[in-house]
From TrEMBL:
Membrane topology classification: Multi-pass membrane protein
Keyword Membrane: yes
Domain of life: Archaea
Organism: Archaeoglobus sulfaticallidus PM70-1
Protein name, entry field: Uncharacterized protein conserved in archaea
Length: 210
């Protein structure tokens, strides 16, 4: 029987066993849903202030009904935070499936979906930190309003936690692709590193604003 905690510290051995013994979708889906719930909690903490500030910025110019705009932003912020991890899981798995095929990868898409779901573990484990950051951010928004969005220390902290999370995810994802798609470690690293490079490019562009 596979140890579902093992991907955190020994993903290579876990995915080797999981491939040999076979696993269902219950645990992978549960991991992704838990990650989505955590993202929703983080969004809920800051959604009210973000919606309020956004309406204040746009009000009297493009918002004939501030109340309706507030509700739209508030609901979409929370709902989007739940949906995004689930959609992201499917998209990234499809990306891995397609790119790994260029390297001669073989294996079903369902296997790729199951294995890549475990790359959400780091976000779950680091969730106490992300929730604390969200609480601090909410306080900044409530105290300083729109100026909080320009808080350099806060943005830098977010970027740091994001880098730590994605590097840990890369470690897990690399072995997930290796075993799901029957690739060498080198090729699976290349496939897994592509989203990381995209993420680094995005945060580099973001950090240049501060």
């Amino acid at each position: 029987m596979v140890n579902y905690i093992e991907p955190i510290y020994n993903p290579d051995n876990f995915f080797r066993k999981a491939k040999a013994e076979g696993i269902g979708f219950i645990v992978p889906v549960a991991i992704v849903v838990i990650s989505a719930v955590i993202a929703t909690i983080n969004a809920y903490i800051t959604a009210d202030e973000i919606a309020r500030i956004t309406v204040e910025i746009i009000n009297n110019k493009f918002a004939p009904d501030p109340g309706a705009m507030y509700q739209t932003i508030y609901i979409s912020t929370i709902a989007g935070s739940f949906i995004t991890p689930i959609i992201g899981w499917v998209i990234l798995s499809g990306f891995a499936q397609g790119l790994s095929a260029l390297f001669g990868g073989e294996g079903s898409f369902s296997q790729t979906l199951k294995f890549t779901a475990f790359s959400f573990y780091p976000g779950i484990i680091l969730s106490p930190i992300s929730i604390k950051i969200a609480l601090d951010y909410e306080l900044l928004l409530r105290t300083y309003g729109v100026q909080a969005l320009l808080s350099k220390p806060f943005v830098q902290t977010q970027i740091l936690i994001g880098i730590i999370t994605i590097l840990w995810q890369l470690f897990i994802w690399m072995f997930a692709i290796k075993h799901a798609r029957n690739l060498s470690l080198k090729k699976s690293f290349i496939v897994a590193a592509m989203p990381l490079l995209i993420y680094i490019a995005l945060i580099a562009m973001s950090s240049n604003r501060f």
